Every structure is written in structure tokens, then in C-alpha cells.
Amino acid sequence: MVGPLKPTPQASFLKRTTVIPLLLIALLCSLSYSLGLWQNRRAAADAGGGGGTTNLQCTHYTPTQINTTALDFSSHHSAAAVTDFVRTYPPCAAKYMEYTPCEDARRSLKFKRDRLIYRERHCPGKGDLLKCRVPAPHGYRTPLKWPASRDLVWYANVPHKELTVEKAEQNWIRYEGDRFRFPGGGTMFPNGADAYIDDIGKLINLADGSIRTAIDTGCGVASWGGYLLSRDILTVSFAPRDTHEAQVQFALERGVPALIGVLASKRLPYPSRAFDMAHCSRCLIPWDQYDGVYLMEVDRVLRPGGYWILSGPPIRWKKHWKGWQRTREDLNGEQTAIENVAKSLCWKKLVEQGDIAIWQKPTNHLECKAHRKITRNPPFCPAQDPDKAWYTNIETCLTPLPEVSDNQEIAGGKLAKWPQRLNSIPPRISRGTVEGVTDEIFQQDSQLWKRRVSYYRTVNNQLGQAGRYRNLLDMNAYLGGFAAALVKDPVWVMNVVPAEAKINTLGAIYERGLIGTYQNWCEAMSTYPRTYDLIHSDSVFMLYNNRCKMEDILLEMDRILRPEGSVIIRDDVDILVKEEDHKWVELGQSDC
Question: CA dihedral defined by 200, 357, 188, 114, rounded to 10 degrees?
Fold first, then answer.
């Protein structure tokens, strides 16, 4: 057996003389590394955080850009800078707990009362913007879950008893201890909205899916829209902020879609051909005045073949004239004027039965144009964008429908019935009238949002809890994919297409059977504080970069978000951290 070799004296000397320089080199390397590490930590501390970041390339999906590659939802991109300090915003004074910046009662007094112009949107200037957080009322409680919220609302959340007195005989609302109860009544349906809707359903078909979107003008507490939801009909209810204190606020607290709005001098903030049905139940809109301009605006937003339903004065005036405290001559003159305006719009009166009258808009304008050769009152509107409806003046003219080749064709294209309508290609897209959006892009966008919403449920488990959320807002909806992916949940989504968006897609959203509105996010939304349970913001800050301050958009989001509500932001990280040299808000990582 051979044992280990014993080292010679020469070998030992060579080993020592080789190791010493190596030790010196290792020591110098260690010192160099330590010095570099110390400098790096000092630089990170000077930047206000704890460590550097690496900028990695990632695919960012904007509302107008679709990538069909496999999605990776994990965070790859972190903020390139961190904050020096966090700016905080104090609560506003208690008097602002129901503050609606663009419908402020005191500011409105500076504007004309004629045609209710003073009740339109009049937003504060930059110097008058509040830099504080709108508080909730004392005793605020989480709203009841849908569908219980349709009938019950906590008194502390909307502490106004005026309507319980003013509308006591009309069964609108009752005060019961710590809550309000909504029996479903209305001025013209004291027996309840359900029975009233059943009466309408005997006159037109509400059950076959051909009627999906509706608009309720002068909605009260939105019981009509609230009870249509059980029939899969989605209604936008609107009313001004007026002496009927908090009527729209009650609607929203109940979990019913609603906005503050008024028919005055500006177009309603919806595209043309948006609604299958329009409704007025004693809404106090002077349809016969101003050359019938308000009915012309209803005609613009009503779909070809859509219905206009009117109940209340002057319908059935021969029975009700004494109770309405008006003369027979006055009421007869009003109804005659309304009938004449409807006829001039080429509408057909389908029926007048009991307290309800229904007209139908033609499916195209072939015959109407032939009639215009005889009478030009009102004329067709000159060349214009009928979908342009953000601070756009109402015109006394008839909005022309898209051209057709024969009288059987539906102008703008035939819509599928609900629920097939949701995923069918919207006619505006299939006909190529939405710039840059093809059938393929629409389908890809739908699949993309199904995957994205599925991912959202993993990072926000409350989104998957039935009843946790009810009122949702998509601040930059594009084609409505976010809302479409949630359609089976007990929620509704207000889809906003910003007025500054390069492509106006709101008409296509309505053709899917969804609802929405136009909005400039440099201004406040026409809604009350604490409207939404969840706000979804996709590329909003990128769109408004250099248009207005990010802090004002975030304060508006805070105003309209309910306590314990959630916000999902998808945006360009560099835009988010750039604002005011990264010093006003602390941001974490952002998903690509």
C-alpha cells in the first residue's frame, strides 16, 4: 500500500510564496466590493428607498393595441424612482359630503335659467378645485347587497327625508327607523314599477331580448330602471340635481345605474342609436316647446325601430285634468303639439292605452326623406358627427340615419337579440365605421379581457364574492371588454369613453348591450360621492399625461369611490412615477 507523499521543503516554500500574493489580491477585491456596496446603498438612501431597480422590457397592452401572444400577468417592471415624501390630503369639511363639483348649486346661479341651462354641467376652474378628500356622512354603513339594496337603503348613507314627505302619496320612498324602504312606486305607477312594467309589456315585447338598453329621462329614484333589471334590460336613469333632493343619489345607493343630467341646451352624453327604449313618466320635460328640440334629441339617441314611452301629462288628460289642476284646452294643446313633433320625426304612434302612450322610430329614413321633399320641418341635420356628444349643442333638426338600399333594411345594421348581442360583432365594427377596429381585433379584445378579469379575481378575491361589489366604473372602456367579462356577475359597469380618446367606441359598446357615457377626466363626473364599489383605470394616466394633474384625477376617483372600495390601475409605470418629480404619491410595482 502506498501512503501519502510527504512534501519536500522546496515544495512547502513554493506553496507559501504562491499563496501570499493571492491573499493580497483577494483582500483588495473584498475592499473594492465593500466600497461599491456602501456607495450603492448610500445612493439608494439618497433616492428615498432601499435598493436599485432594473428596467426590463415588457409588453404593455393599451386599449387600442392588441397583442395575441401569451399573457404574463406577473410584475416585471418596477418604478424607476421612489418618493422623497408622501403628500397627504386632508378630509374636506363636512359640508362637502355630497359635493358634486360640476353641478354645484351656488355656481349654477350664475347661469341662465332659460331651458334649465343653469342645471347643466358647470365645472369649477383650476383655482377652485378642492384639494381634499370628500368625507362620508356620520354613521355611514356599507350598503346592503344586491338585490336587497334595490328595496332598502341605510338612512345614514343618504340622510334626506324630504322625498318621504313630498312623495308620500306616490309610494316612492318610506322612512323606517335606520333605513329607507323603496316600495317601487312612482308618480304614474303608485301600484309599483313591476305592475307598470307588466302593463308596458302587454303593449310591446319586453321579453324576447330585442330590447336591452333603455334610458329613463327624469327618473326620480329610478324604480323603473331598477325593476327592469330582472328582465335583463339595462337602463341609464338620469335626473338633474334639483329640488327633489338626492333622487339620483338614492338610485345609486340602491345599486341602480344613474347619472346626474338634464335635457337643456347640450346633447345628452351618449352616442346616436344607443337605446332600444326611452321613457318619460311625468318627467316634467316640455316636449312640445322650443320647436320640439328635446324630442329630436331623444330621436338621436334612440335606435332605429326603438320605442318612446310617455305616461303622465298630457296623456289621458280627459280623465286627469282636474287632478293636474290644468285646463282641458291647455292639456289638449300640449298633446296635439307632441303628436305633431313625433309625426315630423317620422315616428309612428303604436298605441295609447290607459295612462301610457307609445311611439316607434322608423327603422330607416327612406320614406322620411321622401316626405321631406314636401315639408322641410324639421330639416335633416347638416353633415355632422351624430355620436359627438360632449358639450355639443342640441340642434333643431332631425339626425339622419345611415343610408340603406331598400325599405326593409335596418339603418346601421341589425342587432342580435340579447344575450347573443354581447359577443356578436357590433354593426359599427363589421361595417368599418370604427376606425382601426376590425372583427378580428374585437374578438381578440374580448378574449384578452376574459383572461385579464380572471387574473383580477386572483389578486382581488372580493371581485369573486357575489354581492361584495355592485356599482362598477371603467374609466377607459375601449370596446367594453372589462364589462363583458363580468356580465354574469351581479354587477353593472358604467363604461366611459373619454372625450379625448382617439377612437370613439361608445356606440359599439351600446351595440353590445352595455351602457356608458362620455367623460373628460380633467373634470368631475356627473355623479354623487361614494357612487362606485370598484373603479377600473386602464391607460387613463397615459391618456391624460400633460393634459391635467394626476392628483386631480385621483382625488376625483377618491370622491366617487365608496369607503372600502377598490381601484385597479393598469398604466405606464414611467407616467405614474414621473408626475411632479415623483414626490407627491408613493407607488408600488405595476403590472405590465
Answer: 130
DSSP H stretches of helix in 90-160: 105-108, 148-151
119 in Cβ contact with 240 (< 8 Å): yes
Cell of 446: 374580448
**Separation CA 260–CA 100 (nearest Å):** 9
DSSP state of 502: S
CB 399 within 8 A of CB 267: no
pLDDT at 396 over 70: yes
* Residue-wise pLDDT tens digits, 407-417: 999 999 999 99
Q: If pLDDT is split at 50, 70 and 90, which confidence band does 383 have?
A: confident
378: alpha, beta or left? (left if phi > 0; alpha if psi -120 to 50): beta
Provide the greatest CA pair distance for the chain. Answer: 132
Average pLDDT over residues 466-492: 97
Amino acid, single-letter form, for residue 557: M
Strands of the 492-498 sheet, one edge to the other: 516-519, 492-498, 471-474, 532-538, 561-570
Whether 471 and 443 have beta carbons less than 8 Å apart is answered as no
- Whether residue 581 has pLDDT greater than 70: no
Instruction: Tell me the Ramachandran region of residue 290: left when phi exceeds 0, alpha when psi lies from -120 to 50, beta otherwise.
Output: left
Query: Do residues 355 and 324 touch, judged by C-beta distance below 8 A?
Result: no
Show the beta-strand stretches assigned E in 112-210. 152-154, 174-176, 179-181
Q: What is the CA radius of gyration of the chain?
A: 30
User: In this structure, how many other beta carbons lie within 10 angstroms of the beta carbon of residue 128?
Assistant: 10
How many Å separate Cα 486 from the centre of its chain?
14
Q: How far apart, in Å, are the Cα atoms of 49 and each of 53, 80, 574?
A: 10, 11, 17
SS3 at position 570:
strand
Read off the pLDDT of residues 430-465 as tens digits, 9 standing for 90 and up. Answer: 999 999 999 999 999 999 999 999 999 999 999 989
CA distances from 464 to 75, 144, 459, 486, 533 (A): 22, 17, 10, 10, 13
C-alpha cell at 35: 466600497
Rounded-to-integer distance, Cα 298 and Cα 87, Å? 46
- 20-24-27 Cα angle (round to 5): 135
Q: Which of 265, 269, 210, 266 is nearest to 238 (CA)?
A: 269
Residues 6+ apart with CB under 8 A from 479: 63, 437, 442, 445, 446, 505, 508, 509, 512
Locate 456 and state its grid cell: 383580477
The CA-atom distances, in angstroms, between 2 and each of 63, 311, 316 are: 79, 114, 123
For residue 37, give Cα distances in angstroms to 29, 79, 84, 124.
12, 21, 22, 52
Q: In whole angstroms, give the CA distance from residue 587 to residue 578.
A: 11
Residues 1-28: pLDDT tens digits?
A: 333 333 333 333 333 333 334 434 444 4
How many residues in the chain? 592
Task: Look at the block and give the residue holding cell 292605452.
Answer: 353
Angle subtended by helix axes 328-344 and 293-301, to nearest 10: 40
Cβ-in-10-Å burial (0-12, 13-18, 19+) of 3 comes to exposed
User: First and final CA of the chain: distance in angstroms?
Assistant: 68
